[in-house]
Amino acid sequence: MEGGGGDDASAASSLSQRRHELSQMFQHYLDKTTPHSLYRWIGTFVLASVYALRTYYIQGFYIVSYGLGIYILNLLIGFLSPLVDPEMEHSDGPSLPTKGSDEFKPFIRRLPEFKFWYAITKAFFVAFAMTFFSIFDVPVFWPILLCYWIVLFVLTMKRQIMHMIKYKYVPFNLGKQKYGKKRPSAGSSSPRAD
C-alpha cells in the first residue's frame, strides 16, 4: 500500500507542473499584448458589449451589473489618482508640483493603464460567467440601483476633479506636444534671386 502514496505525489507534482506551464504560456501572451493598447481596449469593449447584450436579453442579473459598475468605478479612481497623494502622505519620492515654481515631475498613476485594462477585462469576463448561474440572478428593482450608481459616480468624479484642480495635475497623456513649422523671423530674410 505504500506504493499508492508515491503515485499521488507524482500526480500532484505533474498537475502542479502543468499548471505552472499554462500560467507561463498565459503570461507570455499577456505580455505580447502590452504594446497594443488600442486592440486590447477594442477587445474589452467587445466583451463588455457581449455582456451588455446578454443581460439585456435575459432581463436579469442586475446585482451582478451593479457590482461590476462599483468595481469599475473603484478602478477608475485608482487610474485617475497619482501614485503619491499629496493630501495623504508626504514622501521624499516624486510628487506633484503644487506651485508654478515647483519642478516638473511626471504624473505616475496609482493604477497603471495595463493593470487597469486587465482588471476591467477580468471583471467583465467574471460577470459574464456569472450570468450562466441562476443563483446570481437576485430579483431587484433595477432603476433604484441605476440611480444610486449614477449619484455615486457623480459625487466620486466631482471629488476627483476637485482633487485634480487643487493639486494641478492632469492624469491623461495626450502625447508629445507638436509645434508648428519654424517661420523665418522678420530680420533674417533670405536673399532672393530676381
Automatic annotation (TrEMBL):
Per UniProt, the keywords (alphabetical) are: Membrane, Transmembrane, Transmembrane helix
One cellular component term from this protein's GO annotations in UniProt: Golgi membrane
What is the first-listed, main subcellular location in coarse terms? membrane
Q: Which InterPro entries match?
A: Rer1 (IPR004932)
Q: Which compartments is it annotated to reside in?
A: Membrane
Q: Name the residues that span the membrane.
A: 38-57, 63-84, 140-157
Name one process (GO BP) from the record: retrograde vesicle-mediated transport, Golgi to endoplasmic reticulum
Q: Does the keyword Transmembrane apply?
A: yes
Keyword Transmembrane applies? yes
Which membrane topology term applies here? Multi-pass membrane protein
Q: Which family does it belong to?
A: Belongs to the RER1 family.
Q: What does this protein do?
A: Involved in the retrieval of endoplasmic reticulum membrane proteins from the early Golgi compartment.
Name by which UniProt lists this protein: Protein RER1
Per the UniProt record, the source organism is: Lithospermum erythrorhizon (Purple gromwell)
